[in-house]
Design a protein that fits this description.
Oligomer: single chain
Structural class: alpha/beta
CATH architecture of the largest domain: 3-Layer(aba) Sandwich
Largest sheet: 7 strands, mixed
Distance between the termini: 67 Å
Number of domains: 2
Strand order of the largest sheet: 1-7-6-5-4-2-3
Helix content: 25-40%
Bound molecules: pyridoxal-5'-phosphate
Length: 420
């Protein structure tokens, strides 16, 4: 039987792990070790030849365990399991989402290259692109969900740098308004600017939707990135990241990771394997709950606008959603009638939902993007992307949805009492 025929959720408890190599333990132990003993000097030599790319790996040969900055069983088994959700050839895990993202930039961009990136992107990513990549002579051009393919191509051509375009980087849906970036369109732009000597890579941050509700590799992306801190970890107790793609690209990413030394440790690998066992179950419940919360908010008189993938009205956005998304996610943002003070009153009145940034966890979280996650975005851009003072972002967890709605309702009631 080819295990890859089974659904990923059926394989998360066992895939890639051999109990007989670990005293029969049903679960993969934590391999808390920095280095591994070679059976012979010849074996050590053979492992290093493969690890340092001095020769190609034989068909049946596995990369031997050397040193935990290069490889470790907890990371390798986790990486194998993660590939199943996105049907990727290979995966590299990192000590954070930011380290996955920045390692991809450092591996595939060179001074003089052009990076085309979607806006708004995660604050840390935006800082790295605008403040750090530019220090190394990398040119950057932003685009957003409102621009057409022609608008974007024209912007690249007008820059005079189209021959230097090396990567398109997209985050979709955009945080916190759920605006969708068209993956197929990005791939077409990458293809248009690729030449026989230079392929324009297309990388997607799929943290908001993955690995269940959107599979960018199936829509033309070359690399998929995750903050595994969010849905993959899912319990607000670990920081981690991942990058998936073809064997040859991931080999290059792992090469850079070896020298930056930003791989995840064995504890993180073990925690994430534990999280993956319940990933599908958690995300199903979160999606179910989010739908009910969004429906409640839409009907509430104190709520102006609800930003949720289940209620898209714009026809182009709706078409993109149908084509590239497989679920409506668990992120719901909404505008409270009023201003910052009403939004704050709501946040301060919540009893069950926690006031914290981050997302994708078992517990529901609420935050105020304009003054928290997006405080670093210039006012003009915040206005452009709909990140208003009255906007509240919710990440819906696995609690009972009636309890979540009860909490949101009582907090909204507090707001209307104070404004009457
Ligand atoms: C959280 C997040 C990141 C950064 O991940 P860390 O694990 O915090 O380093 C990147 N992209 C998105 C969309 C995120 O939500």
């Amino acid at each position: 039987m080819d295990l890859k025929m089974l659904k990923p959720e059926s394989l998360m408890m066992s895939y890639g792990y051999k109990p007989e190599l670990s005293e029969g333990a049903i679960k993969c132990p934590i391999f808390q070790t920095s280095t591994f003993v070679f059976k012979t000097a010849e074996e050590g030599k053979a492992f290093f030849e493969v690890a340092y790319g001095l020769r190609e790996k034989e068909e049946s040969e596995e990369l031997g365990l050397i040193y935990s900055r290069l490889n470790n069983p907890d990371l390798e088994i986790l990486e194998n399991r993660l590939t199943l959700w996105d049907k990727a050839e290979d995966c590299a895990v990192f000590e954070s989402g930011m380290s996955a993202i920045t390692t991809v930039f450092l591996q595939f961009l060179n001074p003089g290259d052009l990076l085309l990136f979607s806006q708004p992107v995660y604050g840390g990513t935006s800082h790295f692109i605008e403040e750090i990549l530019t220090r190394f002579g990398i040119h950057i051009i932003p685009f957003d969900a409102a621009m057409s393919k022609e608008d974007i191509i024209e912007k690249v051509e007008r820059s005079g740098l189209s021959a230097k375009l090396a990567m398109i980087y997209a985050e979709t849906p955009a945080n916190p308004t759920n605006a969708l970036i068209d993956l197929l369109m990005c791939k077409q732009i990458a293809t248009q600017f690729s030449t026989p000597n230079k392929e324009v890579l297309f990388a997607v941050d799929n943290t908001y939707m993955g690995p269940i509700w959107q599979h960018p590799l199936a829509h033309g992306a070359d690399l998929v990135l995750y903050s595994a801190t969010k849905y993959i970890g899912g319990h607000s107790d670990v920081i981690a990241g991942a990058c998936l793609g073809s064997k040859s690209l991931i080999q290059q990413v792992k090469g850079m990771r070896t020298f930056l030394g930003n791989m995840a440790g064995p504890w993180t690998g073990w925690l994430l394997m534990r999280s993956l066992e319940t990933l599908k179950a958690r995300m199903n419940i979160q999606e179910f709950n989010a739908k009910r919360v969004a429906e409640f908010l839409e009907d509430h008189p104190s709520v102006d606008k609800v930003f949720y993938l289940g209620n898209i009205e714009n026809p182009r956005q709706k078409e993109i959603f149908k084509r590239q998304c497989e679920g409506t996610g668990a992120m719901v943002s909404f505008e409270i009638k009023g201003q910052e003070s009403e939004a704050f009153k709501f946040l301060n009145s919540l009893k069950l939902i926690k006031l914290a940034v981050s997302l994708g966890s078992t517990e529901s979280l609420a935050e105020h993007p304009a003054s928290m996650t997006h405080a670093g975005v210039p006012l003009e851009e915040r206005v452009k992307y709909g990140i208003s003072e009255q906007l509240v972002r919710l990440s819906i967890g696995v609690e009972n949805y009636e309890d979540l709605i009860w909490d949101i309702k009582q907090a909204l009631d507090q707001v209307s009492v104070s404004t009457e």
